[in-house]
Design a protein that fits this description.
- The chain is α/β, with parallel strands linked by helices.
- It folds into three domains: 2-28 and 225-317, Immunoglobulin-like (Sandwich), CATH 2.60.40; 33-221, von Willebrand factor, type A domain (Rossmann fold, 3-Layer(aba) Sandwich); 321-326 and 353-443, Immunoglobulin-like, CATH 2.60.40.
- 15% of the residues lie in helices and 40% in strands.
- It has helices at 53-74, 106-114, 124-134, 160-168, 186-192, 210-221, and strands at 2-10, 14-16, 20-30, 38-45, 86-92, 96-103, 142-149, 172-178, 201-204, 226-235, 239-244, 251-256, 259-267, 273-283, 289-292, 294-300, 313-317, 320-322, 355-367, 373-382, 388-398, 407-419, 435-443.
- Strands 6-5-4-7-8-9 form a six-stranded mixed β-sheet, with helices on both faces. A four-stranded antiparallel β-sheet has the order 1-3-14-11. It has a four-stranded antiparallel β-sheet with strand order 12-13-10-16, with no helix packed on it.
- Helix 1 (53-74) runs antiparallel to helix 2 (106-114).
- It is elongated, with a radius of gyration of 34 Å.
Length: 455
């Protein structure tokens, strides 16, 4: 069967500038369906929410799946699955029914699919039970169960223990979920499916995508296992790989600040097998917005499997920066190209005494969008008796931002000129100064409205 699934996931959808997150690469391989024939049971949701286009697209996808397995097992779509591979169909709503036992007849399978109609609630536990009963315990064939559903469990007992029992008996479980009108418990699908979830669970909000999902799954599960696997991961320049965990199979090494290589000698040569690699990534860029994580993922193996990985993006929120005071305006002057000296009167500037320049930055945390902030800065200095004396006070209005979330705002370059000649300072430019800065911040835009009393 080859590489049956490949995935790349990130641990969070949003980080602050300079934040870190985990990336997970995963692949699953399964032996060739010719050398290792399979018993495949399709478990199909026909509850009331499947009426209309969902059921029509499901039927189309399942029949495409059947045709691809037919072609792969004996190199021809001759109407029969070859080399011992069989397929059966269970459908379910309030209860489940074994609509088609394990068979090699393509016509029998397709006739069963065409005969499905929608109605009733959703009993996943009974569906797993009926599917498990179709498998022949005495057969050496691989056992593969593909569960399709568009809703949460609304009838019968909890399905998770039944699915766990099937997995314990060696059944490989794939789950395909359509986010239907009644909702979908994605966590439940992850719980039912064989690990890793990333290569055994598929979710789509659009029933038009079902044909493509069933097609891709059929193509993948009919390929051979993989050997001499090499996966080279490169993240974009916005990020840096800071650590690589030990993969569940094979070995991985950093080959640069943004690259790593994962090698696996053999995967899925004798039974379906998954492998996963986790690594930690840090944001090192300066731009906010939705940033792509990987520049490329290059896969190679001895069998020539064509494997692609998703390209996730992450929302990066860097600080908004506000500089409340502009620098003094320069005085323009011009020297001619051959002029070696000149005199220029720049105007008057009052200098009251020697002093030191203090420049302060402050970060306002979690400022919500659309709301201005009043910021006050109070600078004091302790005299020789430890009494605080006011040196200066500044008040600013920080403009509202229009981001989608509450975020930090960096207020930079708040300047104070601290005079040296004061009536309480120790005196001299080299004297130690004991300064204290206090910051007060409050929203200017509030939601308070006075109550109007009816008379």
């Amino acid at each position: 069967m080859g590489i049956t699934n490949s995935n790349k996931e990130i641990s969070v959808g949003r980080i602050d500038c300079g934040g870190e997150f985990k990336v997970t690469l995963s692949v699953t391989a399964t032996p060739d369906i010719v050398s290792s024939p399979a018993d495949i049971v399709l478990v199909l949701d026909r509850s009331g929410s499947m009426a209309g286009s969902p059921l029509a697209n499901l039927k189309s996808g399942v029949k495409t799946f059947i045709d691809i397995v037919d072609q792969a097992t004996d190199s021809a779509q001759d109407g029969y699955l070859g080399y011992g591979t069989r397929m059966g169909i269970v459908s379910f709503s309030d209860t489940a029914a074994q609509d088609c036992p394990l068979t090699s007849s393509v016509a029998q399978l397709k006739d069963t699919v065409d005969g499905l109609s929608a109605g009733g609630s959703t009993n996943h536990a009974n569906a797993f039970e009926k599917a498990g009963e179709l498998f022949d315990c005495s057969s050496s064939n691989q056992k593969v169960l593909i569960m399709f559903t568009d809703g949460e469990t609304t009838a019968g007992p909890a399905p998770a223990p039944v699915a766990a029992s099937l997995r314990a008996e060696g059944v490989i479980i794939y789950c395909i979920g359509l986010k239907g009108s009644q909702g979908l418990d994605e966590a439940a699908l992850n719980d039912w499916a064989t690990d890793p979830d990333s290569t055994h669970v598929f979710i789509t909000p659009d029933d038009a995508e079902l044909s493509e999902i069933f097609k891709n799954l059929a193509i993948n599960i009919t390929k051979p296992g993989a050997t001499d696997i090499s996966i080279e991961e490169t993240v974009t320049d916005d990020f840096q790989i800071i650590s690589v965990m030990t993969p569940t199979k094979g070995s991985a090494n950093l080959t640069g600040p943004t690259t790593l290589t994962w090698t696996i000698g053999e995967l899925g040569a004798y039974a379906s097998e998954g492998a996963a690699l986790e690594f930690l990534v840090r944001h090192v860029g300066s731009e906010s917005g939705l940033r792509p994580v990987n520049a490329s993922v290059v896969y190679q193996d001895a069998e020539g499997n064509q494997v692609s990985f998703p390209s996730p993006s992450i929302q990066v929120d860097c600080d908004l920066t506000v500089i409340p005071e502009e620098c003094p305006q320069p005085v323009d002057l011009t020297m001619d190209s051959c002029q070696s000296s000149m005199e220029f009167n720049a105007g008057d500037l009052q200098l009251e005494g020697l002093g030191r320049i203090l420049q302060l930055d402050v970060r306002l945390k979690n400022v919500c969008p659309g709301r201005r902030v009043a910021l006050a800065v109070i600078l004091t200095e302790e005299d020789e008796e430890g009494t605080e004396q006011t040196v200066g006070t500044k008040i600013y209005t920080v403009p509202a931002h229009s981001g989608a979330y509450c975020r930090d705002i960096l207020v930079k370059c708040i300047p104070f000129v601290v005079p040296e000649k004061t009536n309480f300072c120790g005196g001299g430019m080299c004297a130690q100064r004991r300064l204290k800065a206090r910051f007060l911040a409050q929203y200017l835009d509030v939601d308070l409205h006075c109550c109007h009393v009816c008379k």
